[in-house]
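hey m, so remember when u said the tokens were messed up on ur end? i reran from scratch. heres the input so u can diff it against urs
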Amino acid sequence: MDSLDDWPGSRLSDEELDVAYNVRRKAGPELFDRYMARYRAMSEAAVEGLPGHPGIVYDEASGERLDVWGTGEGLRPVFVFLHGGYWMALSRDVSSFMARMLYEQGVATVVPDYTLAPKASLEEIVRQVRATVAWVHRHGREHGLDPERIVVGGSSAGGHLTGMTMVGGWQEPLGLPADVVKAAMPFSGLFDIRPITRVYVNEAVRLDLARAAALSPALLPAPYRCPAVIAVAEDDGEGFLTQSRLFHPRWDAGDLMVVPGRDHFDVVLDLADPDSAVGRALVGLVRAV
């Protein structure tokens, strides 16, 4: 592990860090609101009339629920999508915009909620996300999901949570195989979250450097390295670009995809389009597992 105080941007001022990681401010309130409306509208359109099983409690301890979309005959490979929102916003209701595209490609989609910060600690959020993967592996067959073909992805904070399912050490205590996550596609992920200790988000997640390091995928062991596409937008926040560029060589089973003409919020919406670069990449990952 790097020294506790040596992290990406550690020599930047608090104002410079805010510029690097405050993508909502970068977009501005009007554009941000338009993006959030698109997330909801595209998600509602994607699941309208789609076969599935919404509202399943996957974790008895928290009572959190997930939606299963796009099931069909037999068992389908499954894409588990973890929403962003800096661990303190958004929900599964606005995060299923890729479900119809994947259904038409023979792939099911699972979208969980997790308890948001500050109500839940980041350790608890990570536990819930891993419980989602465990639920798919244990109960997927009952809902048309292939437990041997699980691909995990997510955007922003969801990219961080994706990384926390890619690393090792948590699978065995849950009775899962080390390779339960067969492939991964984090978007605009946070892989070394120590910078978060000095930006506005920390008012909700309340991390110190030691806890942030312990929750950073880039700093954790990964004996099994699943195939991955590490995606980030060309016009993303500089902090997110740096995070993906630093994580890529550490995850030597992954490809880096810098998506031109996209920003932090719209890059993941391309998953609704099978002809987009990220749509093709995701379908390729799923079909290879």
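this time it looks ok to me. The first strand starts at residue 52 and ends at 59. if urs says something different then somethings off w ur setup not the seq
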